[in-house]
Design goal:
The chain is mainly beta. It contains four helices and 26 strands. It has a single domain, classed as 6 Propeller (Neuraminidase), CATH 2.120.10.10. The radius of gyration is 22 Å and the shape is globular.
């Protein structure tokens, strides 16, 4: 072989080596690009009753971090399906391949008996990269009193969910005032603002239980220093329950509120501190349940919620007018199903984590689908 041919062969080898770099990235994966050219929806069960020695599993929270790490966080209800004050752990599984494979469950915090359990996790990534997991603990919500309260805690991870730091109690900030007797942060995703003068602010929506009543109001707790200090907003919704937040394209914040009948809503124009006049979405008259809102692009919001007055048929609604109205619900599971969480993946597909109860007991399932599939289902 002459020198010229040897040189050309070397060039080919070098180029091939460089072409192999980063093949784990979806953007450089031809098969992934081909997959995105057609509608698809995949699903896998992450937990079933009895797995890992636990009687039941509930309360999904799903978040994709800035490096593509996917965190699936939920309750491990070790002995029964019941809420706090039962003995409950909070666990996490991680994925580095868009949810194709997952680590074994790892404990974020372990319950140590009735009245010393933890549940209802909500997760958010801060502007500095840290991940916060907020959760309730100790007493039950409706059993809570100022003397023996349900508490609001959080833990911090500085290594993208691999390990978790000290447990921090922020209960007095969330509901430390007269007229209330308990509170918890709604499970699923928190919110980190991306735009405007409050960029970097992190927020969680809380249900706060009135003293002497079984009625809740909604407030927002927020932090401007990556979760080291906290403030509470003015009332966001009177007579609400679990609520979720999303940032609108112009920087305003939209809250979606669980309630009987039409879903509740309100708008904040100052980073979540004060709120306008509350309203409802009559087109989303559904079961009083926890769901998720998710921004897909500049013009599209999604909302997961059971599309039924019963706890069944978890579906995804679409809004193209910044949450003013919702339309075209697409079913993810037509059978008995309850809570859900969603996150946007680095390749533009959507991950969803939902409770399915086909036999009465709860299973947790991970879905991944693209907008082509969603639009295909809407057109049927």
């Amino acid at each position: 072989m002459d020198v010229k041919k040897l040189f050309m062969l070397a060039v080919v080898v070098v180029l091939a080596a460089f072409a192999g770099c980063g093949t784990k990235s979806v953007a450089h994966n031809p098969s992934a690009r081909k997959e995105h050219d057609k509608p698809f929806c995949t699903m896998q069960r992450l937990y079933a009753p009895g797995d890992y020695g636990s009687a039941n599993w509930r309360i999904p929270a799903l978040l994709c971090l800035d490096d593509g790490t996917l965190l699936a966080v939920n309750d491990k209800r070790k002995y029964n399906e019941t809420d706090l004050p039962q003995d409950i752990d909070i666990v996490v599984r991680r994925s580095s391949d868009l949810g194709a494979t997952w680590t074994e469950p790892e404990t974020i915090i372990a319950g140590t008996g009735v009245g010393r359990g933890y549940g209802d996790p909500a997760i958010v990534q801060c502007a500095n990269g840290d991940v916060l997991c907020a959760f309730a603990g100790h007493n039950g919500y409706f059993q809570s009193t100022p003397e023996n309260p349900i508490c609001v805690f959080y833990k911090r991870s500085t290594d993208r969910g691999q390990t978790w730091g000290d447990t921090v109690n922020i209960t007095p900030i969330v509901w430390g005032q007269s007229g209330y007797r308990g509170a918890f942060v709604a499970s699923g995703n928190g919110l980190c603002l991306k735009h405007g003068s409050h960029a970097g602010r992190i927020l969680f929506a809380a249900a706060v239980l009135r003293e002497g009543e079984y009625v809740s109001d909604n407030y927002v707790v927020y932090s401007d220093d990556n979760g080291y200090t906290w403030q509470r907003s003015e009332m966001a919704f009177r007579g609400g329950d679990e609520a979720k937040l999303v940032e609108l394209a112009d920087g305003r914040i939209l809250i979606s509120v669980r309630r009987s009948g039409a879903r509740g809503c309100n708008i904040s124009s100052d980073g979540g501190h004060s709120w306008r006049t509350q309203g409802t979405w009559p087109e989303m008259t559904v079961n009083a349940c926890n769901g998720e809102m998710l921004r897909i692009d500049d013009t599209t919001l999604l909302h997961s919620i059971p599309n039924s007055t019963e706890r069944r048929n978890v579906s995804v609604f679409t809004s193209n007018d910044e949450g003013t109205s919702w339309h075209s619900p697409v079913s993810l599971f037509e059978g008995p199903s309850v809570y859900s969480s969603m996150t946007l993946l680095p390749d533009g597909t959507i991950g969803a984590y939902i409770e399915r109860n086909p036999g009465g007991a709860c299973e947790l399932w991970y879905y991944r689908f693209n907008m082509l599939w969603l639009k295909q289902q809407q057109d049927k």
